[in-house]
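Lab channel / #folding
Pinned by the channel admin:
"Please post every new chain as: sequence first, then the structure tokens as a reply. Keep commentary short and put observations after the output so the thread stays searchable."

First post following the new format, from NK:
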Amino acid sequence: MTRDPASIILPATKAEDMARHMEAPRIDKTATSRLLIGLALCAALMSGAFFLHVRRDAEDHGSVSGASAQLLPGLTLENAEPAGSGLIVTSMESSGPAARAGIAVGDDLVKIDGTPIASLDQASAFLTDHRSARITLDLRRRDAIRMVTLDRSQD
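Reply from TO:
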């Protein structure tokens, strides 16, 4: 008759206790799924609320310095460093008009409709004064400048 080595050293209840504690913990897959869905929903709501807040602030005060702003459909811009050296694309909707036009995060916005742009304030003022549905952007990526046309009515 062979005995379990753990039962020789430990009483039966202690051996059973050890075996129970060594089992892998059970994960409730339903609870985990619900938690992940809830977190994804919160992230989506928070990002939308942030862009709405920045846009309202820009409309109310005419200034967006020190922040990012969604001034163009499907992307957000931020002042590049050093101040006054232009704008940089910081985020974008993956299936939005900017992505479809080939714009990428990290692109530098050089001009809007042929006008050099140095700051978010300048871009905001220009876009407020020029409300045409289609605008042309000059973007720099890796020392190459290219022109892209965006339809603002898709905003």
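NK: The chain has one domain: 33-154.
TO: also worth noting, Confidence is low (pLDDT under 50) at residues 52-66.
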